[in-house]
Amino acid sequence: MNELEYLKRAFDKERLAHAYILCGNDENKVQESAQEFVRYINCAKRSENSCKECESCLAIDGNRFPDLYRVAPHGTEEESQWRAEIKIGQIRQLGMSLSRAAWNAPFQVAIVEQAHTMNVEAQSAFLKLLEEPRGPVLFLLLTKHEFVLLDTIRSRAQQLACWNFTARPEQARSLEEFQKLQQVSLHERFVVAKELAENPSRISVELEKWLYAARAALMNTLKEKADGSSLSKMLKTVRAIQEVSAILARTNSNARLALERLMIEF
Ligand SMILES: [Zn+2]
């Protein structure tokens, strides 16, 4: 059962949690899951899926559904990948919107896109929203760096993983590239780090490819029943890539330094 089916079944059984963190590497897929779920719970003609053509479905897709609120980081696409933030004002605004009753939906839904871009103040404000008693509201936090969220937020939300590592041709290539990268000298890896740091828009793409490759390598190691030390090294590598992705997505850290630190782990 994927994350979307899980949510739909929970809704059918009236057992929805108050908040969910949908985390996954494929932002479009996570986004579409959230969208379909909101359509599903409001659809006038739902079966297994939403009908996508009733008034509610059309309003949701047209971004004019009165009981759905979205919060997203401001900034250009490139910035939103690395620098843009969701600020406290946006969360306060959301709180005000949610303080009135739902128009005609079973409950209000708040979708926080790229939730990891909430800065610390915004996260604290969001935590308050989660804690305050209010009418029926469902929070959906979409993110690919869930560990950037405050523990207190994560403990109040149910986490659903939507990782998508179906091997696409470019990903098979990325495993090869990654293995090559692991074999070259540290000096050569630092050159890669320098070049990448000079092309900020490519950083997230490359990090994601490395993460895919490192996970694939980890799976292979597991299958081969390798010894504990190579397993723990692989795990450390995966973790290091996730951490550097999160650090660069959240802060103004020096990209080159962060990437060099990562290269030492490879
Ligand atoms: Zn519909």
Automatic annotation (TrEMBL):
<dbReference type="InterPro" id="IPR050238">
    <property type="entry name" value="DNA_Rep/Repair_Clamp_Loader"/>
</dbReference>
<protein>
    <recommendedName>
        <fullName>DNA polymerase III subunit delta</fullName>
    </recommendedName>
</protein>
<dbReference type="InterPro" id="IPR027417">
    <property type="entry name" value="P-loop_NTPase"/>
</dbReference>
<dbReference type="Pfam" id="PF13177">
    <property type="entry name" value="DNA_pol3_delta2"/>
</dbReference>
<dbReference type="GO" id="GO:0006261">
    <property type="term" value="P:DNA-templated DNA replication"/>
</dbReference>
